[in-house]
Specification:
The complex is a heterodimer. By secondary structure, chain A is an alpha/beta fold. Chain A is 32% helix and 30% strand. In chain A, a hairpin with a 2-residue loop joins β9 (196-201) and β10 (204-210). In chain B, 39% of the residues are buried. The chains are: A alpha/beta, B mainly alpha.
Chain lengths: 301, 544
Amino acid sequence: MIEIKNLTKGFGENIAVKDVSLTVQKGSMFGLVGSNGAGKSTLFRLLAGIYKPDGGSITYGGAPVWENTAVKEKIIFVSDDLYLPFSQSIRSMGKLYKAAYKSFDKERLDSLVSVLRLNPKATFNTFSKGMRRQAAIALALSVRPDYLLLDETFDGLDIVMRGFIKQVIYEDMAERGTTVLLSSHSLKELEDCADRIALLHRGEIVMDSDLADAAFSFFKVQVAFEGTYGESRFEGLKIRDYKQNGKVASFIAEGDRGDIEARLGEMNPLLLDVLPLSLEELFVCSLEAMGYTYGERETKI
Amino acid sequence: MKNLFSFDLYKEGFKKVRILGTCFLIAMVLLNLAGALISEKRGGVDGSVTAVEYTVLSILLVAFVPVLTYSAFSFINNRAASDFYHALPQKRNCVFLSFMAAVVTWIVLLVFAGNLTSYLCWELIKGAHVPFSVAASTFLCYGTMSLVFSACTVLGMMFAGTPTSAVFATNVLIWAPPFLAYFFQVWVERFYPQVAQWHSVFNHVGYSQFMPIRILFSEDGFAIDFGLLLNLLAAAVLIVLACRAYANRKSESATHSVVGKVPRHIIRGAFPFLLLLAAFNRLYEAKDYKWNADGLYLGAVVCAAAALLLFFLYELNSTASIKRTLRAMPWFLTVAAAVAVFVGGAFLTSLCFDLTDPDSAEDIECVTVTCEDYYSRKYSGITVSALLDFPITDEGVIHSVYKDFTATEGDYNRSLYCDVKMELRNGLTIWRRVRVTESSALEEYVNASHEIGKREYPIPTREINKNEDAQLWETFKAEYDTLTYGQRKAAAEGGKEGYRTYYVDFKAIYSGYDPGITQRYYVYPENMPKTYKMLKEKEPYLYD
């Protein structure tokens, strides 16, 4: 289990990660999503023991990660900014990994490289961006880590390879209880595979929820009443992103669906629609509520 | 040990720079071969090579070693690479030391290859024997110089996040210490001119001991001595500091200009400091050299302006912002204050010399005079360096030395100097530089000394030839034994009007001379009357 408690990290005046607390259960896949510059990559680097936190703690199974070789042996981090020197090849990088990680499995690397149809002797300057990413993932998976940190790793992979990599990861999770943290800009991708998702914005966790809970906790409501009314009519309900156009009001409501329907029904609306919210809609609403929007355009771009 | 070194990482570090290292190795062999073939040897009297021209080797190492070191640790200046290495399950000390060991291995290979090439060239092609001691000392000295360069490079890199600032930091670390030591010594001597340069603490830790000054500019650059040990120690200390700096370095420092406030202040101020010191130097000299005061004042202004410009340009390069550069300019005053502190420190150091000076000649128990200055030997009738390397208790000499010691500085008649070891009655032993004139009392003592005469012009160990006049030899020997240094010198070298007097030739065996050389002695009637009379009886028609 990974436990993050009150984690803070700043770079000069800029606080990249602000009082973040998360728990990632062993053998689960945790998705991290956020706005640009939210602090996702910084959080990953803190988790990998690359950055030293300014405050708070990160523990893996109770042991801190900073300068702890025993813990770091079990972690592999695939960065969004890959380190694959142009003059090196998969084979030579494999030797470096073997020198650094005791659990590195060369046979697994050979097998993965073969399936991915990569040339292990070719230097990385001959690889495309996608191939470099495939190589980085193959090297990482060959370490057979207990904790796999993937920062926007699937972005840049084609759909076929994405499916294959995910399959390998699922097998590791099932067989060895590997814990995976991954970040992506594609919410659809995270919806398909993550057990739990967190939304990060300006260094803070905005939302941290089990995926199933999220699907059953937020609803898009459209309701209409006679006469004039305002947001105050819905006191007692947890609502956000309230919009009104004449008699019709729409908003996001949080809570039990039955309860929401019952309470709105008691108000005798002319119209009532309660619809489930997609993850994307939920996150966009959450960020808009925090002021993260592109705003109104006055001129055509 | 496991936390400090990984053989696997060492191998990776070695492989990381193998292409560069191999190219340098080939260049080292070929260029040293060419250099050895075209250079002249400095030989000893027995035909062996006492010192080999290693100019090519010097230049190559000055260029190759920093580049090799930088290449091995270049990952710290790249975000992706820095993150990768910091994520490895190794202690940071282990990563650093393993890579450093790989760099040192390449350095040893380069130095060995260069030395071996020269050695073999001399021995096999040029037919001159290179004693093992020469080969060993050059290997050790070049190895030490390379280690110092490598240590300065890697330490500089730890405080820099870009290649430019790394080069800057490295050069500060290599060149600033010898220059600072030189200027410090200059200022101490300015306040206290009687510092015995070759026998004071400055001789052991002065600028001439710093690598590469020692090898490139010093005649004793290849000596295996305390100075070499100091450099080795310095290299070791710098490597340890670099290791600590790496362990504390933040991965996010990569691509930032300078890491840390203190290194930033040091690097931004180092070269302006030296220029301001030079400006201060000019101002001080202007008060002494009034005939060139205008030129010196102008020189001071130019140096100060250059210091300010350099400071400004460095800030502009680091911040890329005129506004922030102008905000940093007041720090220049800190640099000026540092110069004042530096000069003040030199003044205080000079006081330490002053405080241990004898108050009078009576405070001195004995003196030992040495003179290593080429010009003193060349122009002086004293020939002090040949004569006075042993303790003298003669009160007359001591008074004479003390008088010269306290003579006014700036007396241009006193262009000659000796270093004098004074053993004081209070138990202290001090070395001081004493300026003399050719007509000083010291010369009178030397010329009148029997003891010095016996040291410098001993009675020859003569080959006895049964045909030679044994009585003449015995008479000569008895009278020669009574001569002073001046008299013996005149006898052995001709002296005043030597051609107008009798002489005797003896087959003499001296140490340092080949057997069988005939040594001629001039016999003067005023100091060898009996011998002179015997010769006159044999040859009455010589000049009288």
